[in-house]
Amino acid sequence: MYKIEGERTPASKLFLTILVGLVLTIPLFSVWLLVYDRQSQSEEASRSITEGWGGPQTMAGPLLVIPYYTDETETVVVNGQSVVRTKQARHELTLAPEQIDLSTDVRPEVRKRSIYEGVVYDARVHGRARFVLPPDSGIDPSDQNQARGELRFGLSDPRGLGANPQVSANGRALQLEPGGGSGSADGRGFFTWLDVRDLGSQPLIVDFAYDFRGNATLALAPHAGDTRWTVRSSWPHPSFGGGFLPIERKIGDQGFAATYRVGNLALGRSLAGSDSESNIIQRISSPSPGAQESGTNEGPLLTAQISLMQPVDLYSQVDRATKYGFLFIGFTFLALLMFDVIGGVRVSAVEYLLMGAALILFFVLLLAFAEIIGFTPAYILASAAIAGLNTAYSAAVLSSWRRAAFIGGLLIGLYAVLYILLSLEAFSLLIGSLLLFAALAGVMYATRRIDWGAKARAEAA
């Protein structure tokens, strides 16, 4: 059995190494905060780049809205006496189309400011909707004001709405008005007056086309009996989310095409409703994954959503790399400890601290260079710089270039393994666990003969 002479026992050297490692958690945590701060600045810069262009957009409509009036009674107190009054209340009969076919062409653009960038787009919508007045809506036709019907279209951020939207009903062009409808102060979208008195049982065919601008995401709030939505774009990195996924999609280097098919049975709504049903125009807001919360009792508003994702989020990659900082510090300190305990080379706490500081500096360099030249070139440059620095310094500490070459090879291997872990996200836990198991097994084997409580005397038993 090995026994080692010296001023410290092997156990005290191990304790000193762990203590220095714990001290280094402070600057490592500061690096995490730095990554978070830079990511926040990047998001703020992206919002600044796209400000005024149009936000994440959600489309809705067209809906056919027919006002109707009912007599309602109320009891009021006048001069201490209860008086029953009758007043006329306005309501809305809302009809969703039996079928709607939408085609959307999305033209994306990456805009940059300094080292930051954001994705914006122009979209062109063409569509045709088919309405049929129900023979029995449950509302007396004499109470309906069919001469003041409205066709309503919704867009979550009307700032992005292009000039001259075009809407026609049965081939007749209609004059458009801003806002979500005559009875609403909400400005999300546009509408037009439509006289449906002579429609009868004949279908109403509505053709429409309009342009709008937005950024990052595009969504549709389906509401028809049968919604068919086709989306095409030159963006090669879409992400499909929301409450509905496309039934067909093709993604390539030249862009993507997706087709959605949604029925009103999946939406859980009938084609005809009153009052709250018309709120779909007012309920649309900036898209969120899954569904959008509603202020009515109808539950969340389901949408089909497409995000124009950036292919690489360098801040999330640097953040994940930083989380492996303890792995780098632990393996490097372990190698130095083995040289100290087994090889008899004295390594001081200051030398541990300096080499650990260099390992943490790697992540700062990685972040700084990645914002300028991209993640992979920055990773190669930062890892080469730190591996070279620690190899040269360990040659002086360990008094041997041969031993320093082992430290350098260890660091190169660690950086290579870390890059693989970052690339293979699904297997990162498995690979990391196997790596730690192999390291622990190697240390247990190398130190199996060390008497951790004995004075260091460097002699074999």
Key features of this structure:
461 residues, alpha+beta, Immunoglobulin-like, 2 domains, 36% helix
Written description of the protein model:
The protein is of the alpha+beta class and 461 residues long. It folds into 2 domains: 2-43 and 313-460, no CATH class; 58-308, Immunoglobulin-like (Sandwich), CATH 2.60.40. Helices cover 36% and strands 32% of the residues. It has 10 helices and 21 strands. Strands 2, 3, 6, 9, 10, 12, 14, 17 and 20 form a 9-stranded mixed β-sheet that branches. An 8-stranded mixed β-sheet has the order 8-7-11-5-4-13-16-15. Strand 2 and strand 3 form a beta hairpin. Helix 6 (325-341) runs antiparallel to helix 9 (401-423). The longest helix is centred in the first third of the chain and has 26 residues, at 25-50. It starts with a strand and ends with a strand.
Low-confidence stretches: 1-6, 286-297, 456-461
Distance between the termini: 4 Å
Q: Output the radius of gyration.
A: 34 Å
Oligomer: single chain
Q: Count of DSSP helices?
A: 10
The computed structural class is alpha+beta
What's the story with the biggest beta sheet? 9 strands, mixed
Helical fraction equals 25-40%
Instruction: Give the beta-strand count.
Output: 21
CATH architecture of the largest domain: Sandwich
By CATH, the topology of the largest domain is Immunoglobulin-like
Quickly name the level 1 CATH class of the largest domain: Mainly Beta
Global shape? elongated
Number of domains: 2
Averaged pLDDT: 79
Strand content bin: 25-35%
